[in-house]
Q: What sequence folds into this?
């Protein structure tokens, strides 16, 4: 059998380089519903009929959190294909927010991932008396007025924040999450 002059090693290196350029699955389609929130996405309430973009007034001031999904206004894709895209919204008095948190808020509305950084449970408990969020699984508590920093419990880090802005009165994603969304493996 004649040799072609191209060795096995060269073929493997070329294939690896092609994968780096083309992505994990050659020609694979990305599921747009699972893509993390992007700049310009609007927020819609989870389980609400229709896909009406939320305004700051739709989030009760000082009240319980509103759960939302990001929606691409260009093509109408609701980014609900991954639970890591669940967004927790609170409307707080802007004067009570730390400077860094205030800079990411829109008219007092702050946005954080709803996924606890400890083991991935949903942060669903709101304690109005001290304005703290907590995870019911292992009781980590987060201060939404100060970047959702951990104030108690086993969570290893703050909840990632989602910077917001208002455009045409709608709550809109200003930038991606501040840190990786997800949890630590026990």
A:
């Amino acid at each position: 059998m004649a040799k072609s002059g191209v060795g096995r090693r060269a073929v493997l290196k070329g294939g690896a380089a092609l994968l780096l350029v083309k992505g994990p699955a050659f020609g694979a389609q990305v599921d747009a519903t699972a893509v993390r929130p992007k700049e310009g996405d609007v927020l819609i309430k989870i389980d609400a009929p229709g896909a009406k973009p939320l305004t700051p007034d739709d989030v009760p001031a000082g009240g319980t959190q509103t759960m939302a999904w990001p929606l691409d206004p260009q093509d109408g894709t609701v980014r609900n294909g991954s639970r890591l895209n669940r967004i927790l919204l609170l409307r707080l008095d802007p004067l009570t927010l730390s400077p860094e948190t205030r800079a990411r808020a829109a008219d007092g509305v702050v946005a954080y991932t709803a996924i606890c950084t400890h083991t991935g449970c949903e942060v669903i408990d709101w304690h109005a008396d001290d304005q703290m969020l907590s995870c019911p699984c292992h009781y980590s508590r987060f201060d939404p007025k100060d970047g959702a920093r951990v104030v108690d419990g086993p969570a290893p880090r703050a909840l990632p924040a989602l910077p917001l802005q208002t455009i045409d009165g709608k709550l809109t994603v200003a930038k991606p999450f501040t840190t990786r969304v997800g949890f630590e493996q026990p």
